[in-house]
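User: Can you recover a sequence for this backbone? Please restate the input before giving your answer.

Assistant: Of course. Working from this structure:
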């Protein structure tokens, strides 16, 4: 396994095609996977129970036979046409049927493209430049979203990556998450320059940080009053938290986002993503409107087939099962940590959770960052040793699938006491 990592590092920067896979924050060599099935991934002659789930897409478990068959059948008919297909229309109809704020939808290949296009579209539609994002929210790696928050209330344009021109992030404002006052203050000063607020429907890329009750509806209100658009990024939460994503379980105070972004589960493991929303805004996209967007492989027939198969199988029973598995798992982890006296909080939204190593729940990135991060690497490596493949960062969510049944959850929890002891010993 580490031989392969050495070989990989010689030809691929860091040996990986996406940075978090490199185990940078936990140390050691990443697990190279050659096969996956249901709740398991396989590396060499070892079997692991997987809680990464391809970072979300594997809602139905790995290599679900119906999804694989759909992709194989599509492959036999041709890999890519560069012309419209009936399957794209069918997938569009499936999404629109589940998520009423989506009146029209456009398919792209990655979540990054979906949010990037949504932002361009919001700017084109409103004729304004400023985009507001929240510290700790991830929207993919397009230049304008690679900004870090400073210590002030609002930060204008500090790039968090080399290679991003200053001018590109000047029009991105970063605010602390869940902070209504910061939003109100910003809109009071700059309301008529703001094209959009983009927010994760439920932030899950700094660990889980639930929106305070009514926060998303509040954002929509502020946007509407100022003539700006609300872009709800459901790339991770869409079709994972319910049939209609986070939006579907976040309606105590009802709201309708103007644009939404999807990825991950929508392709069941194949590269497809989408942006959708209000018809008048979506029709601003080329060829109808002046905002350009295109893609050689957009709406790819294999990816579209996987998406249709996945969404069709993802009924309410699937979500109920995943909710139960996720609660059993987080309760078990929590009990083990409590027994060892490890300060922690289970941060949860629906079936998504993360373990925060602090006894105070976190509501924003600053609070997440001050947890006992040093407890995670030994916790992680103890579980890995015992055959549990966890996301290799304290800032990531745990992903269960419908194939994580009681027996699998029990197997994971058998390894929890040892991991909790390792976390307790850490300093
Ligand atoms: C994963 C993710 C993205 C980016 O999607 P990619 O397919 O990796 O480009 C965007 N937003 C959120 C909330 C995500 O979790």
């Amino acid at each position: 396994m580490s031989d392969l990592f050495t070989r990989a590092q010689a030809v691929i920067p860091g040996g990986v095609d996406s940075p978090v896979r490199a185990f940078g924050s936990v140390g050691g060599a990443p697990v190279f996977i050659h096969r996956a099935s249901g709740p398991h991934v396989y590396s060499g002659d070892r079997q692991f129970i997987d809680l990464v789930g391809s970072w979300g897409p594997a809602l139905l478990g790995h290599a679900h036979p119906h999804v694989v068959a759909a992709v194989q059948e599509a492959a036999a008919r041709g890999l890519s046409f560069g012309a419209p297909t009936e399957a794209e229309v069918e997938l569009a109809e499936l999404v629109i049927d589940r998520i009423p704020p989506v009146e029209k939808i456009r398919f792209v290949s990655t979540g990054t493209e979906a949010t990037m296009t949504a932002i361009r579209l919001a700017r084109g539609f409103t004729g304004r430049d400023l985009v507001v994002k929240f510290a700790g929210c991830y929207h993919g790696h397009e230049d304008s979203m690679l900004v870090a928050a400073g210590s002030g209330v609002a930060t204008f344009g500090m790039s968090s990556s080399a290679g991003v021109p200053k001018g590109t992030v000047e029009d991105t404002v970063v605010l602390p998450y869940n902070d209504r006052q910061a939003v109100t203050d910003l809109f009071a000063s700059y309301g008529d320059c703001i094209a959009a607020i983009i927010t994760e429907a439920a932030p899950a890329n700094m660990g889980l940080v639930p929106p305070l009750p009514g926060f998303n509806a509040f954002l929509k209100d502020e946007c509407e009053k100022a003539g700006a658009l609300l872009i709800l990024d459901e790339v991770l939460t869409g079709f994972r938290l319910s049939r209609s994503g986070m939006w579907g379980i976040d309606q105590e105070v009802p709201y309708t986002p103007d644009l939404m972004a999807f990825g991950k589960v929508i392709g069941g493991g194949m590269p497809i993503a989408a942006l959708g929303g209000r018809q008048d805004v979506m029709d601003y996209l080329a060829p109808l409107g002046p905002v350009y967007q295109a893609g050689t492989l957009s709406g790819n027939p294999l990816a579209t087939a996987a998406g249709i198969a996945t969404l069709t199988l993802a009924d309410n029973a699937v979500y109920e099962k995943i909710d139960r598995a996720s609660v059993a798992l987080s309760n078990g982890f929590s009990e083990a940590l409590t027994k060892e006296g490890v300060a922690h909080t289970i941060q949860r939204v629906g079936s998504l959770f993360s373990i925060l190593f602090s006894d105070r729940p976190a509501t924003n990135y600053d609070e997440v960052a001050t947890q006992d991060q040093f407890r995670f690497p030994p916790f992680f490596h103890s579980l890995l040793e015992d055959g549990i493949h966890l996301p290799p960062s304290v800032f990531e969510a745990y992903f269960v699938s419908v194939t994580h049944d009681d027996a699998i959850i029990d197997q994971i929890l058998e390894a929890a006491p040892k991991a909790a002891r390792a976390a307790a010993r850490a300093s």
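That completes the design. The CA atoms of residues 147 and 158 lie 5 Å apart.
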